[in-house]
Amino acid sequence: MIWQSILEQSRALKAKEISSVELTHAYLTQIQEKNRSLNAYLTVTAEEAMAMATASDDRRRNGQSLGVLDGIPFALKDNLCTCGIKTTCASRMLSQYLPPYHATAVERLLSAGGVLLGKTNLDEFGMGNSTECSAFGVTKNPKKDTCVAGGSSGGSAAAVAAAMTGYALGSDTGGSVRQPAAFCGIVGMKPTYGRVSRYGLVAFASSMDQIGPMTRTVEENAVLLGAISGKDVHDMTTVECPTEDFTAELRQGVKGLKIGLPQELFGDAVAEEVKAAVEGMAKYYEAMGAELIPLSLPLLSQAVAAYYVISSAEASSNLSRFDGVRFGHRAEGCRDQKELFCRSRSEGFGLEVKRRILTGTFVLSSGYYEEYYGRALAFRQQLRAELSRVLERCDALLCPTTTTAAYGIGAQPTDSVSRYADDLCTVVASLSGLPALSLPCGITEQGLPIGAQLIGTAFSEKKLYRIGFSWEQGGGK
Amino acid sequence: MKAESMKEALKRMAELSCLALSAEEFALLEKDLEEILAFARGLPMTSAVENSCEAPSVALSALRSDEKEACFPRELLLTQAPAKDESYVIVPVMGKESGQ
């Protein structure tokens, strides 16, 4: 039953074929069997999960079920605050941190009757794309355990792919939901900026951070986005949208839709196997009645540089709150406050986090601000304008999610710039705040999943799900 | 940027960021920062950008009216403080090392 979709599980719960306690127990057993080797979970909340499952069964027995997610187990990336449950951000800095509140997205899932199984691994504070930057070890890819699961939401992706949870939430700043989803062969959505509240998400780069659902199928993903999205008074960037049923148009097919293919994301930087798989998906859409529109986005080649300047600048500001005073790691035996700040931060942060803080401080500092940060902001505006123009001509863009399939653990290039270049396909939607859906579109010769990405206009998630669902039910089946 | 000035810049950034870098970290990050900044200098210099981005066609309510809300209880927040007494977070004395 752990491999069933959450919709099938919900139906079985409703029909009393299974109980939430049985389902939760089955997932906890799977976690016990798999987590030692995969390292997907940092914290397993077995006791709390069984209590939530019991409460769900009681509600169902009394005819008070809370809906489709009631009694379904889920996992959370460990940068989402959970009241009284450790939220470490995979950092020594927060290794013992117990938040006093739930993130809004978490609160919404719990209010819908969800059963929290635990917290999953990530690159420290979300900075990285392989979980190799976690202070608590790398998460292995369930499809091939010598490979990374991707990142930064690698723990969530691996947990979903290995049926160690029904679904999971991740967070995406520069591709952190979509890239691990592609590497592990699951579905991941980065919603439009403003669609989902970030209250309780430990901030990395606030102008791009978004929380997104990670699932095994498109339909489940659409259900979950409906559950977590909407206005929140605690996050002023959330947008007042009418309540949407993201599953409403799933079965409408793609006939008559226009799908753009940005040529820059089918170039030499992308592996042949990846290109071929995404092109195969495009051909399927054409056969189903969609119109393919090859197009060019010349600015794409510089998007990664802009992303790293802006995200590092915001990270340097956001992470200044970790100073060893009110919460988090504090260095022992400091004589004054300056020493306390410096030593606490130096001991608490890993190398990649320090690298981003220093880069961010540099690009924001007097004398360099305009040359780097100002230039990146201007570029971002140009890129947004270019994307707006392109998306006037088509319903969505189709491109690879990643340049390659999952790579070996420890096999990433040692220089930062080459590592950052891996984010070529994902940062475009991040910089522009647009929604982007990653879904499996093929398998390499080595048996590793390949992901394709659909990017749409702001608040067009429903259409992206529709296009993704068509592939999942047809070509991708 | 010359190697010497990058060294100086990194020292200043570490100071501003409240990070004490080991010699090994310093050497690694000096090289990294140089590469990252060279990469970033590849961005086009744009003086004026036409504002062609449109705000989403839904009501933004960033400026909501003020509402009085209870904050987290002091005791709850103090549970996470690394050093505390009954009512306060304890921190070392400011500027003690320089005798201020």
Kindly state the mean pLDDT of chain A as a whole number?
96
Task: Tell me how many strands of chain A there are.
Answer: 13
The end-to-end span of chain A amounts to 20 Å
Quickly give the structural class of chain B. Answer: mainly alpha
Strand content of chain A: 5-15%
Assign the structural class of chain A, choosing from mainly alpha, mainly beta, alpha/beta, alpha+beta, or little secondary structure.
alpha/beta
Shape of chain A: globular
Can you give the helix content of chain A as a percent range? 25-40%
Radius of gyration of chain B: 23 Å
Mean pLDDT rating of chain B: 79
Shape of chain B: flat
For the CA atoms, what is the radius of gyration of chain A? 21 Å
Pick out the low-confidence regions of chain B: 51-55
Could you give the order of the helices and strands of chain B? HHH
Oligomeric grouping of the chains: heterodimer
Notes on the protein architecture:
The complex is a heterodimer of chains A (477) and B (100). Helices cover 39% and strands 14% of the residues of chain A. With 477 residues, chain A is α/β, with parallel strands linked by helices. Chain A has an eleven-stranded mixed beta sheet, with helices on both faces. Chain B is built from three helices and no strands. Mean pLDDT of chain B is 79; it is low at 51-55. Chains A and B meet through helix 9, helix 10, helix 11, helix 12 and helix 13 of A and helix 1 and helix 2 of B.
How would you summarize what this structure contains?
With 477 residues, chain A is an alpha/beta fold. Chain A has helices at 6-14, 20-38, 46-61, 104-111, 154-161, 178-184, 218-228, 272-287, 303-318, 337-348, 351-364, 369-393, 416-421, 427-432, 461-473; strands spanning 41-44, 73-77, 115-120, 140-141, 144-148, 167-172, 187-190, 210-215, 258-262, 291-295, 396-400, 436-443, 449-455.
